[in-house]
Design brief:
This protein is α+β, with helices and mostly antiparallel strands. 57% of the residues lie in helices and 19% in strands. The chain is built from twelve helices and twelve strands. Strands 6, 7, 8, 9, 10, 11 and 12 form a seven-stranded mixed β-sheet that branches. Strands 2-1-5-4-3 form a five-stranded antiparallel β-sheet, sandwiched between helices. The chain is rod-shaped and about 160 Å long.
Length: 472
């Protein structure tokens, strides 16, 4: 019962309701009792004026039988109305009229009342009652003097009966309210626990490999926000799982191709299929494939390090223009092979920036090498640096087949290659641009690509990659 959120919520609310109801019942009980007593005393005070008047009349006309009869009837009527016994005495405590068989009044009450004090006491009235009754004693005045006293004796049971009737009404209305409250509490607890249970079930489904499950979002409160966040997490996990599967498939493909070539060529050399005069050529191919495998593994290890939270950039100040010149010189032979014309445009001779110099050098080499690789022979590659909106910008562009619009959003993904590059280029593993993206993300900077037609009707496209850096 208490193991589920529904049970804990319901019984917590139910306990709170019970405590509130108990406290309220005690408070209301005390209040009703005091209220009934207070109202009863107020009624007695109002009645006492009438009794005082007729008692005065009776004492003046002592021989008038009609007055005495009227006085007795008035006392009886008010006694029935109040539910009390009424006793009237003179200043000596002698009973001159009564609605019951009482003939004497306790001296302690007489002494207080005839001295002008209105009293409220609980006594058995010299044994006249089996149990104590509430006695209200009120002095009778005439022409400024005390001429007697009136005593109103009320059994506690009579007053409690009225109090119990009021309390019963309160109890019935409270029980109805508690029932409605308990129903609302159960519904609210169910409303809270149901989506949490759904989240728990969906989480178990995802843990077991079913990534299609999602939680229905039915509100905009914290529970609804939790469900939305969970769905967002589930989407991310599903996308991550798909990426992981693609990654494994791509790695397997990229490793299998050179390994197949290496094993095939070595077997051909060993069994004599490849002539001795061509073995060096094939061994050179094997060496190139081995180097490509080594480079790909090293790149993957480097990218894995970048994904770690422990990877730290070595940020220093350096000249981006000078670094770009060094990269162009390093790639000079590649540029000459395709007879390309570098077109370099620096806004200023120097451009001081902040960043990890070695990492940015790899970014520049990757981008320029990419531009050389996919340029048409005998064309230009443009390299430009400038400052804009408080940041340094680097851009390299080339003329070639370009990148399709459908490929632009995926070009920075690991192992991603356009169809053209898979056919025409076998030297890369599709990690270079992903490496570039990771480095720029670590620098909290941007990198993007654009590929546009050079002119209408032409298949030649101009493709450029741009990234930003923080100015020193």
């Amino acid at each position: 019962m208490f193991k589920s959120i529904l049970g804990r919520l319901f019984w917590t609310y139910a306990t709170i309701l019970a405590l509130v109801f108990t406290s309220l019942s005690v408070s209301v009980g005390i209040f009703v009792d005091r209220f009934v007593t207070s109202e009863h005393i107020d009624d007695i005070r109002r009645v006492s004026d009438t009794i005082e008047y007729w008692t005065g009349v009776m004492q003046i006309e002592t021989d008038n039988l009609r007055v005495k009869t009227a006085h007795r009837q008035i006392l009886k009527s008010w006694a029935d109305f109040l539910g009390s016994d009424i006793v009237v005495t003179n200043t000596n405590g002698e009973v001159i009229a009564s609605t019951c068989s009482i003939t004497t009044v306790p001296d302690e009450l007489v002494n207080k009342v005839v001295n002008g004090e209105t009293i409220t006491s609980h006594t058995n009235f010299n044994g006249a009652y089996d149990k104590k009754v509430q006695v209200v004693g009120i002095p009778m005045e005439y022409q400024g003097g005390i001429v007697g006293a009136m005593y109103f004796n009320t059994a506690r049971g009579n007053m409690r009966k009225t109090a119990l009737e009021l309390f019963y009404l309160f109890l019935m209305s409270s029980m109805f309210s508690i029932f409605v409250s308990a129903l609302l509490v159960y519904m609210q607890s169910k409303r809270i626990s149901k989506p949490i249970g759904a989240i728990n079930k969906t989480a178990r489904d995802i843990a077991s490999g079913n990534y299609d499950g999602r939680v229905a979002v039915t509100s905009t409160d914290e529970i609804g926000q939790l469900a939305s966040s969970f769905n967002f997490m589930a989407d991310s996990i599903e996308a991550l799982e798909e990426t992981r599967g693609e990654f494994i498939s791509d790695v397997a493909h990229e490793l299998r191709t050179p390994m197949t070539s290496i094993s095939g060529f070595i077997e051909g050399i060993m069994d004599g299929t490849i002539p001795a005069d061509k073995q060096n050529d094939y061994l050179k191919i094997v060496l190139d494939e081995s180097k490509r495998l080594t480079k790909m593994v090293n790149d993957m290890l480097e990218m894995s390090k970048m994904s770690s939270s422990e990877y730290k950039l070595d940020v220093t100040q350096f000249d981006l223009n000078e670094l770009t010149r060094i990269c162009i010189i390093n790639l000079g032979s590649r540029i000459d092979e395709k007879n390309l014309e570098p077109e370099v445009d620096f806004e200023s001779d120097t451009l001081e920036v902040l960043g990890d110099k070695d990492a940015i050098q790899r970014v520049v080499i990757n981008l320029v090498d990419n531009a050389v690789k996919f340029s048409y022979p005998n064309t230009k590659i443009s390299i430009k640096t400038w400052t804009e909106r408080g940041r340094a910008h680097f851009c390299v562009g080339n003329f070639g087949d370009g990148i399709k619009g459908s490929d632009l959003s995926n070009i920075f993904n690991r192992f991603y290659k356009t169809d053209k590059s898979r056919v025409n280029d076998k030297s890369g593993a599709g990690l270079g641009l992903s490496f570039v993206k990771n480095i720029m993300t670590l620098h909290k900077q941007s990198v993007w690509v654009e590929s546009v037609d050079t002119k209408e009707g032409s298949s030649v496209k101009y493709t450029k990659f741009t990234f930003t850096l923080e100015l020193a």
